[in-house]
Amino acid sequence: MARDSAAGTESGRPRSRAPWPFFRFLGRRLVALVVLAIGITFVAFVLTQLVPGDPALSALGPVTSADPEAVAAYHEHWGMDKPLPVQYGTYLWNLVQGDLGVSQLSHQPVLDDLRHTIPATMELAFLSIAFAIAVGVPLGVIAAVRQNRASDHALRVVSLAGISMPTFWLALLALYVFFFRLDWFPGGGRLDPGTTPPGEITGLYTVDAVLHGQFSLAWDALHHLILPALVLAAFNVSLITRYTRSAILEVIHDDYVRAARAKGLPERTVVIRHVLRAALPSVITVIGLVFANVLTGAVLVENIFAWPGIGQYAYQASLELDLPAIMGVSLFVAVVYVTVNFVVDVLYGVIDPRLRLT
User: Fold this and answer.
1) Is 114 within 8 Å of 332 (Cβ atoms)?
2) Measured between alpha carbons, how far is 275 from 249 in angstroms, rounded to an integer?
3) Is the domain of 84 the same as that of 167?
4) pTM for this prediction
5) Closest listed residue to residue 197, CA positions, set 180, 182, 214
6) How many domains does the chain have?
7) Is residue 279 part of a domain?
């Protein structure tokens, strides 16, 4: 009994249970997430108000907008005649109730528009980031392990070229070569013209088609998905390769790595279990930022490939000065980045338990 009591204390203090530090770590991150999300909504609201021009002019058209009474009625209907603090408070209250307003362009609730456009972008982003991770991380490991050799130099040149090429130029080049010249992939859209989409479950055509047993439709959706996903992945493969290489070079010569080699462990085991694990926090940070960027910043690729995602929706909303839609997209972008940062922080705590105490 005395041994158990002694083992349960350290310097006279009871030892804390293992899960609690992680729960405290998780709780702090959740509080920071909520505060950050509210702050982002405020910044997005202020920036939207600073956009030059009157939304009534684009929504009513050149003839109706010439009538001051019509413009005043439009402002009153959308609450634009109220003070800014009142407008922001109303926006937050509606947001809590799940009301993002009605798009002035589509005349549909913004939430419904986002439900149709976000899955298309998510499908594109998931395949793109999966390919980027599957290719970029191994290439970064190879370049670091073979530092200053021919393969390392070749990978560094290729990754530099991938980062330097503009995405829109690569998209146009891929469309010309693989669609127009070789006819290997479709030119755009999520399905062939005249094809009926699968019944909506997740909004991801490939997943929904498989769930309904429509495997030919799933292949059609995947066939349309591959080319724009690879174009988006090209830049990210190069970025992940370079960051993985740098992260591994920072730890590959540490003492514990030399000790692992001195024990006679195979080089593959040393690299995967010791070196790569120590480099994972830096790699995860880059992957998280890359995923958020793909999910929110694929505007040019979506327009070139006629992909009906959030990028096209944001582009049209900006052209028409559709404030409810712009605010809805801004909120989506905020949620994506805040969520990605939260997941990355949690993964830090899972990989390195010491970070749970911070």
Assistant:
1) yes
2) 9
3) no
4) 0.76
5) 214
6) 2
7) yes
Distance CA(165)–CA(40), nearest Å, equals 31
343-356: pLDDT as tens digits: 877 777 676 665 55
Which two three-digit tokens encode residue 113? Answer: 């528009």
Residue 30 lies inside a defined structural domain of this protein? no
- Residue 54 gets the label, from left (phi > 0), alpha (psi -120 to 50) or beta, of beta
- Based on the domain organization, do 217 and 266 belong to the same domain? yes
pLDDT in tens, 59-84: 666 666 667 777 777 777 666 777 77
Same domain, 86 and 155: no
Burial class (CB in 10 A: 0-12, 13-18, 19+), 270: buried
Q: What is the mean pLDDT of residues 89-117?
A: 81
Q: Domain boundary residue among 303, 319, 335?
A: 319
What percent of the chain lies above the pLDDT cut of 90?
8
DSSP 259-303: HHHHTT--HHHIIIIIIIHHHHHHHHHHHHHHHHHHHH--HHHHH
Distance CA 206, CA 148 (A): 42
Please provide the average confidence, as pLDDT, over all residues in the chain. 79
Domain of 88, in residue numbers: 53-99
Residue that wins the pLDDT comparison between 23 and 353: 23
Q: Does residue 141 surpass a pLDDT of 50?
A: yes
